[in-house]
């Protein structure tokens, strides 16, 4: 594990990557709550395909870190059952593209049990899934289909972009009484480090983060796209004097509509960046929310900078498919200069 340092407040912290922060978050929650269990393919002895569950099996044993067959519907179905016995299951889907066999369990049962039972039962469960492209993976390993789950009432959907947020959002998700889809941007699993407190803490599931203050345009994004959006904003500030505000949504459902609209009321322009296909993506929901809540402040058409309406291509075209800083810069500039 990474070296321990002290924060300015005198609290101990570790310099962690995002995937290490996930592992630390799981370890922290399992250490303080015996009802938290982890299950999935290769999460136990192997420590997970990305090592997000590394060392958990050795520390907590096979009754709490459970290797399962390759059966996503069974993993999620068993987790729903566990949640009804006082447990807090954290099932892992190895990749978001493997979640489709479990879709029926998620939307027909996990998302509906509170409503179906008129509030008598809930499903305290966190489904973790690495998602997104950029790592040169085979087909079905680079999906970004967060909109599927945002559309379903009864689910919360979360996507961290920093190690600090990853641990705090994971803790808040595990403590939440309802099911959470926790999407981990694997492109930045090991891209950078950040000081993460060793003690338990939460990051709210209802608040976006303003990553960069600005006055000319609001840029909304999440997950792995936050970093190229920030790079684009800095480049435009230096080259053209465009002052972009960058909002990291963090929680995709429920959306922090207050932060979204407050930023737009200040800038009057918006660009939305996501790697999922453009049509039917979450960008459309954000744009519509702005239209409904802040139309009179609008100075230009809202720009969506997204993946293309095609399956994620294989290796040689993957970087072309994903919104890179240059494409984001072009979209921001076009909107500001409209």
Automatic annotation (TrEMBL):
InterPro entries: THDP-binding, Transketo_C/PFOR_II, Transketolase-like_Pyr-bd, Transketolase_C. Keywords: Oxidoreductase, Thiamine pyrophosphate. Its cofactor is thiamine diphosphate. Residues 16-191 form the Transketolase-like pyrimidine-binding domain. It comes from the Archaea. This is Alpha-ketoacid dehydrogenase subunit beta. It comes from Haloarcula argentinensis.
């Amino acid at each position: 594990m990474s070296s321990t340092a002290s924060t300015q407040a005198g609290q101990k912290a570790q310099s962690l990557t995002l995937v290490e922060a996930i592992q630390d978050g799981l370890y922290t929650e399992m250490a303080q709550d015996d009802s938290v269990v982890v299950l999935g393919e290769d999460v136990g002895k192997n420590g997970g395909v990305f090592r997000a569950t590394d060392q958990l099996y050795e520390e907590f044993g096979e009754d709490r870190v459970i290797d399962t067959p390759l059966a996503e519907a069974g993993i999620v179905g068993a987790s729903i059952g566990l949640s009804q016995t006082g447990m807090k299951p954290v099932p892992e889907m190895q990749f978001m593209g493997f979640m489709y066999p479990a879709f029926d369990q998620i939307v027909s049962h996990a998302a509906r049990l509170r409503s179906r039972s008129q509030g008598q039962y809930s499903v305290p469960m966190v489904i973790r899934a690495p998602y997104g492209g950029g790592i040169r993976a085979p087909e079905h390993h680079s999906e970004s289909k967060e909109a599927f789950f945002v559309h379903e009432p009864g689910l919360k959907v979360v996507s961290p972009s920093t190690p600090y947020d990853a641990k705090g959002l994971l803790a808040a998700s595990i403590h939440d009484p309802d099911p959470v889809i926790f999407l981990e941007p694997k492109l930045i699993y090991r891209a950078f480090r950040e000081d993460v407190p060793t003690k338990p803490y939460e990051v709210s599931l209802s608040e976006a983060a303003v990553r960069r203050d600005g006055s000319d345009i609001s840029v909304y994004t999440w997950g792995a796209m936050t970093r190229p959006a920030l790079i684009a904003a800095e480049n435009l500030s230096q080259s053209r004097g465009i002052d972009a505000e960058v909002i990291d949504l963090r929680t995709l459902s429920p959306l922090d509509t207050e932060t979204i609209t407050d930023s737009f009321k200040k800038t009057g322009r918006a660009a939305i960046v996501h790697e999922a296909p453009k049509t039917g993506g979450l960008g459309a929901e954000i744009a519509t929310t702005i239209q409904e809540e802040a139309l009179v402040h609008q100075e230009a058409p809202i720009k969506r900078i997204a993946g293309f309406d095609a399956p994620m291509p294989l290796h040689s075209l993957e970087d072309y498919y994903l919104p890179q800083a240059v494409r984001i810069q072009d979209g921001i500039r076009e909107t500001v200069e409209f």
